Amino acid sequence: MNQSSGKKKNTVAAALTKQFLTFRVGSEHYGLELNQTREIIEYAGITEVPLMPNFLRGVINLRGDVVPVIDLSVRLGRKALDIQKRSCIIVVELHGQDQDHVLGLLVDAVSEVIEMAESDIEEAPSFGANIRAEFIQGIAKQEDQFIVLLDANNALSIRELAHLVEAQLQ
Amino acid sequence: MNLDGALKTFFAEAEELLVSMESAMLRMEEGDTSADTMNELFRAAHTIKGSAGLFGLDAIVAFTHRVENVLDRARDGKVEMSQELLSLLLPCRDHIATLVAHAMKQEDNDAECLAHGQGLLESLQPWLDSEDAEIAAPIGVENASSDLTLATEPGRDLWHISVRFGPDLLRNGMDPLSIIRFLGSLGELVHITTIEDHLPELALFDPEQLYLGFEIRLRSDADQQAIEEAFTFVREEAELRILPPRSNVDAYIKLIKSLPEFIHRLGEILIKSQALTYQELEHALSTQKQQAKASASVPLLGEILVQEQAVAPAVLNAALDKQKKNAEKQASQESRFIRVDAERLDALINLIGELVINRQRVDLLAGKLGNSQLIEAVTAMGGFTEQIRDAALTLRMVPIGDSFQRFRRVVRDTAKDLGKDIELHIEGAETELDRSMVEKLTDPLTHIVRNAIDHGIEPMTVRQERGKPAGGTISLTARHDAGNIVIGISDDGGGLDLERIRQKAIANGLLDETTNLTRHELYQLIFHPGLSTAEQVTNLSGRGVGMDVVKRNIEALQGGIEIESELGVGTQFTIRLPLTLAIIDGFHVDAGGIDFIVPQNTILECVDLPSTHHIEGQHCVNLRGEQVPFIRLQELFCLTQKPGRREKMVVVQFGEDRAGIVVDDLHGEIQTVVKPMGPIFQALKGIGGSSLLGTGAVALILDVPQLISYAVNVENRRNNSVLADVQRSSS
Amino acid sequence: MKISRKKNRNQILMKFDGELTIYSAMQSRDLIFQDQEAWPELVALDLHAVEELDTAGVQLLLLMDKLQRARAGRVVIDSSNEQVDRVLELLDITHHFAPGVSQ
């Protein structure tokens, strides 16, 4: 398996690169496909929605649209995030079957955009990682840092999130 | 090219006309014999035929023409609109609708379709007299060109139509061929001369410009107005001259003189088409020359035509005037409607929504600045904003009656197929609701109505045994109720058999023998997928659209559906839908640190809540002698408690009763744009959307009925009976 | 619309394939007349694959005829189909394209 940065990529592999937005949640680094992220905004207050499960922090006003904000840490099975100086919200747009869905993700800090050749993305390990396997698209290594590349369609599946909300309200 | 726009308009109008034809025929079946209805029916068919002709939709023209003939004869009293004829005409109308639909989707009419049409026309034969049956194009031609034979009979007892179209005719989406074919449908095209004189050199040729003119000789019994109608859409830019049959030589000479092409050329054309003989032409032209010599003035080409010919334009003008007057008269008699692009309307409403939000910000800022003149001006502006908002919103509302009316046909046909006699009773047709909801309601309503016809209303013999009238009744009702529209579908049929439902549920494993369910809960089982209590799933209602889908559709509209039934007496479905207007009037409150909005139209009053009521477990207050139960939002939503404040209560209408919603603070009336919260919040009860305040903060809009239901459920689980009693007595 | 050409010493056979209507009138004009300077005395048309002929298409045909006649040549319709025939008959312009007949 090839390691990532620093190596010269051949032209074929170079053609198959993907861009990812990387960010930090807790002590771990994650990435989302750049073409699914719409923008990054500062955390400037959030309106709570009553009776919602922990992963749903509330909603925000995004230039006239009301967008739900998900605590990615809780969604990935860890504890809720505290709001820090660099906390921000990544606005994500997912294309569903009949409609597009816009979500906000609460994260600790946003890092940078990286470009990865398909061949440099490793498969998720089948053990050890305490995140659901289907949430992970792959693992990338960037200067000694492991970045968990998320599969947004699974990790942020509206259907599943809606079910979780429903279950909470029963 | 303008084609798309004009064509779209044609299809939209054709659909409306088809609806009105059906409606007229159904009324006639039920005994309406008025001339108005007959005329309405005829005019609709006539207009469809005419417009289709202009767009070259010849299959539609050919078929509709025959139908129109029958209707024309009926209008003149030559045939009677018997039940038998009406039963034939309804499928004819359906066939026209099919042809229009095919044209709209640009599909071909396949052999089966054409054969069907042919069959229908053959069955109309007895009502057409021999004349009508012969003239007009045979149907069943795939490629839409009619079979028009050009006879060669001589004579001047033909119409002579001379036309030079405007150069942009082709660009505007029309084609002379369609107009010519249409003329052919009025009679027999005896001769056509295509005037190509104006085709330019290749270098100057514009392929999209029309250079051709036509001299047409037509045998027809139609009147001048009918012939002119063929040219309605192109009149403005066309040079049109119509000579009635038996126009004399002079008339033709004048025609020649008024046309732009070379005189002899025209003369030749007329000779060739046998309007004139060679001698007549020579004679006339030489006479003119002599006259010119005598008077030493050159008679102008294009001179005003002689008496007979002069009649033609005058007749034309008079006819045009008459047409205009008729159109005006009709317009003032009916209400004036204009067609509006739905997307433009939505765009407008969105803009108004933004305006509303902005106005609130301006209000806030003006208040902060404290300038009284500014505040006054802003308040006045607010008043206008409200009016604009209301006006825009009413544009989106349509009366539900339009949807209800469509069910007449469904009920009639379905009942007939099943051999049942069922009458549809409609009430509250003028109740209005948002356009978008109407479309989404059609499927669930259709399913319920079909169920009622199929399984609800018993066969006549059974009804008679039960001492009921042989004919069954299905009622569709609609009314407004506190921010909701309430739609009722009821029948006087056999009712729902609770026992059978129970047995079926047990058989399907949904229930076990020992479980005891209330009536209400048993009825709710009907909405469970996979539970159909009909012995056979008939084609009509068992199309894989079960009651569970109906319920889901209604819930997707944030509404609810209830059933009430009595065995042997009948069944009633009640659908409740919130009027999700894009902008609503609300009352801004806050509780537990969150901003909420209570829809204004549910609010009766706001009062302070005495601190003595800040007792856990006590949820009722005495308001001017009446016990009013209340909900504390903080408690219900498990929000952080604010200690010791004086609480406020918003008293709202809830069904027939009142209830209170207790909050921390009141902030006054606001207008607010309803922003959907998205599918993640689908299951959230009590909140029906969100909104943006002037500060930019998000406020949650309360859905009062849902909120109270939810509160009752919570109470029930805690076995507190006060609110629950209120709930039961008001449902 | 597509055109295929077969040329020999004193005639050119042009086969029109597709719709000859207003919708493609501009391109059709270019396609048809692109080699008009080299047209021989006889231009023969195979129209049996013409899916639809409308007035714009008719104008193009008439223009071809006009061009040829100005050079003492002619345009002849070799083969046709029902729809095309109906249109030409309706407008009474078949004489432009009949073999051996001069206006």
Task: Please explain how this structure is put together.
The complex is a heterotrimer of chains A (170), B (731) and C (103). With 170 residues, chain A is mainly β. Chain A has helices at 11-15, 72-75, 152-155, 158-169, and strands at residues 17-25, 28-33, 37-42, 56-62, 65-71, 88-95, 100-107, 109-117, 136-142, 145-150. Chain A is built from four helices and ten strands, in the order αβββββαβββββαα. Chain A starts with 10 loop residues before the first helix and ends with a helix. Chain B has a five-stranded mixed β-sheet with strand order 6-8-9-11-10. Chain B has a five-stranded mixed β-sheet with strand order 19-12-13-21-20. Chain B is built from 23 helices and 21 strands. Chain B has five domains: 3-134, Up-down Bundle (Four Helix Bundle (Hemerythrin (Met), subunit A)), CATH 1.20.120.160; 159-333, no CATH class; 342-398; 400-578, 2-Layer Sandwich (Heat Shock Protein 90), CATH 3.30.565.10; 583-730, SH3 Domains (SH3 type barrels, Roll), CATH 2.30.30. With 731 residues, chain B is an alpha+beta fold. Residues 131-154, 296-323 and 533-544 of chain B have low confidence and may be disordered. Chain C has a four-stranded mixed β-sheet, with helices on both faces. In chain C, α1 runs parallel beside α2. Chain A binds chain B through residues 45, 47-52, 56, 59-61, 64-68, 101-102, 158, 161-162, 165-166, 169, and chain B through 354, 357, 592-595, 636-639, 675-685, 687, 690, 692, 696-700.
